[in-house]
């Protein structure tokens, strides 16, 4: 049996309007087109669905039965199709995210790739910025939300902990500390340190970890980018402390620092501001990926 949705919609319109012209107008079709759909439907079913007079069109018993049954089915189908369409629209558009550089490199690529595979019509625009600029971008509404490092609790942001990222020692393979499986923080006493500057959200946390152990930091260089830091370590100018999510090149090695000190990686948005459905999709994917087991 070959019956189309167009035929069923035309039938329902004629049954409800009891008039071909008014039914055609409600469907934005020509009257001959509606008449043809009804004739084809009756031919396919092998039964007459309407009694026609010059003044009105009245459903037959079979027509009334079909009207009651098809009315419910088509209403439900329209609801299903509308829901599917709205879901498709919900996943089309652009989301702006501000992220600190170490997370832009260590966390966001997987998220962007995952969203591209799941939602092909969703575009993520990443704003790779220093911590202070991430907070400013979220505060000013320039981005949908941010990925930051343990921001101060000023009350102007809604904050959700995403994960805890431990700090590790970064050094050359021929450095004496590379011989240890784990390196106590106190071993950094007197070592030449190359650290990120205070535009990084991690720097104050590293300072706090050193100060809490009365370690006098011998900071020989401060940089604005991890790549610069790693190049300097490669050149033998010193060692560094870096988040585990920001791995160095294979020419360098990392060692866990004990006892473990971590930075809180958080999602932030303007306080009491709802995310758009698109931004919420990405927020939820970041949340899921941060709890996924490593591959």
Key traits:
about 300 residues; alpha/beta; DNA-binding transcriptional LysR family regulator; LysR_HTH_N; DNA-binding
Order of helices and strands: HHHEEHEHHEHEEEEHEHEEEH
The backbone outline, from C-alpha atoms, is rod-shaped
β content, as a range? 15-25%
Can you tell me the residue ranges where pLDDT is under 50 for at least 5 consecutive residues?
none
**Number of helical regions:** 10
Q: Quick check: average pLDDT?
A: 89
Alpha-carbon Rg, integer: 32 Å
Task: Tell me the total number of β-strands.
Answer: 12
Helix content: 40-55%
Q: How many angstroms separate the termini?
A: 51 Å
Quickly give the structural class.
Answer: alpha/beta
The major pleated sheet works out as: 8 strands, mixed
Family: Belongs to the LysR transcriptional regulatory family.
GO molecular function: DNA binding
Protein name: DNA-binding transcriptional LysR family regulator
Organism: Dyella japonica
């Amino acid at each position: 049996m070959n019956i189309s949705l167009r035929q069923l919609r035309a039938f329902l319109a004629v049954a409800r309007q009891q008039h071909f012209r008014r039914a055609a107008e409600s469907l934005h079709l020509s009257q001959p087109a509606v008449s043809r759909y009804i004739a084809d439907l009756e031919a396919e079913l092998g039964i007459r669905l309407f009694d026609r007079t010059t003044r009105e069109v009245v459903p037959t018993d079979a027509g009334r039965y079909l009207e009651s049954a098809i009315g419910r089915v088509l209403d439900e189908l329209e609801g299903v199709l509308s829901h599917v369409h709205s879901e498709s629209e919900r996943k089309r558009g652009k989301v702006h995210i501000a992220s600190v550089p170490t997370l832009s490199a260590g966390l966001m690529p997987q998220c962007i790739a995952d969203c591209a595979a799941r939602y092909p019509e969703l575009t993520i625009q990443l704003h790779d910025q220093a911590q202070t600029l991430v907070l400013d971008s979220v505060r000013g509404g320039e981005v949908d939300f941010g990925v930051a490092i343990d921001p101060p609790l000023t009350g102007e942001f809604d904050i959700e902990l995403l994960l805890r990222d431990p700090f590790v020692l970064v050094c050359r393979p021929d450095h004496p500390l590379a011989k240890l499986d784990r390196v106590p923080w106190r071993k950094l006493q007197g070592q030449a340190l190359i650290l990120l500057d205070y535009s990084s959200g991690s720097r104050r946390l590293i300072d706090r970890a050193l100060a809490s152990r009365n370690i006098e930091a011998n900071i020989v260089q401060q940089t604005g980018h991890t790549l610069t830091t790693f190049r300097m370590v490669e050149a033998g100018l010193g060692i560094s402390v870096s988040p585990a999510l920001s791995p160095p090149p294979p020419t360098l090695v990392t060692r866990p620092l004990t006892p473990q000190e971590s930075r809180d990686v958080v999602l932030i948005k303007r306080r009491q501001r709802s995310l758009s459905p698109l931004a919420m999709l990405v927020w939820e994917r970041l949340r899921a990926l941060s709890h996924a087991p490593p591959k």
